Amino acid sequence: MEETQLQFLTNITAGIFQLVNITSAALALAVWDYSHYQSLRNIAYYGSLIISASISTTIVIMLLRGIHNKQPYLMLPFIIYCSLQAVISLMFLSYFITTAILQYWFSGTLSLYTTQMIAIFISASLYWVISLWIVREQRQQIEKSAESYHKLLKHRDHKLRNSFTKFRPLVRLHPWAYIQI
């Protein structure tokens, strides 16, 4: 895939990731009934939501900065997070598929809840797997271009160094220090 296409797809992936994180935080705030809990638990809940949103935002910023500055190590947090989420989504998907199979086997019907959960976790698993593939491709492409650039610099520096040191001997100033004259 071309670099611009991968960069575009990675930007879309980062946007969807941030949108899902904001939506899930808003839903978590809407679902929480603060009147039933002590204030310490409410503070802990809201604090954990703020920390979660901050970590997710930091991961997205690092991903986008890694793309923009061509620094593949900045993409690693997203790849790790994405891998963990893919494993979790696939585990939940297997649980709900197993539940649906057993439910159909014993009662001959499928519940709407199980079917909805299967659809949700199929879409979540697909998103995480596709996002992981896109970002890893982008990272590998950046690593390849950086590697070829470093080889070019190394070759150029080696030629430059050899041209200056051909006829200039080293003089020992100290047991550990040499100078070129």
Structure description:
This protein is mostly helical and 181 residues long. It has one domain (3-180). Helix content is 80%, strand content 5%. It is built from four helices and two strands. It has helices at 3-31, 39-68, 76-107, 112-165, and strands at residues 170-174, 177-180. It has a two-stranded antiparallel sheet. β1 (170-174) and β2 (177-180) form a beta hairpin. The longest helix is centred in the last third of the chain and has 54 residues, at 112-165. It starts with a helix and ends with a strand.
Number of helices: 4
What level of helicity do the residues show? over 70%
What characteristic shape results from the CA principal axes? Answer: flat
Q: Determine the mean pLDDT.
A: 85
Quickly give the structural class.
Answer: mainly alpha
| Biggest β-sheet strands, sense, barrel | 2 strands, antiparallel
Give the uncertain stretches in residue-range form.
Answer: none
Rg from alpha-carbon coordinates: 27 Å
Q: In order across it, which strands form the biggest sheet?
A: 1-2
Question: How many angstroms does the end-to-end distance come to?
Answer: 51 Å
Domains (count): 1
Provide a concise account of the structure shown.
Keywords: Membrane, Transmembrane, Transmembrane helix. The chain crosses the membrane at residues 12-32, 44-64, 76-97, 117-135. The chain is 80% helix and 5% strand.
Properties at a glance:
single chain; 181 residues; 2 strands
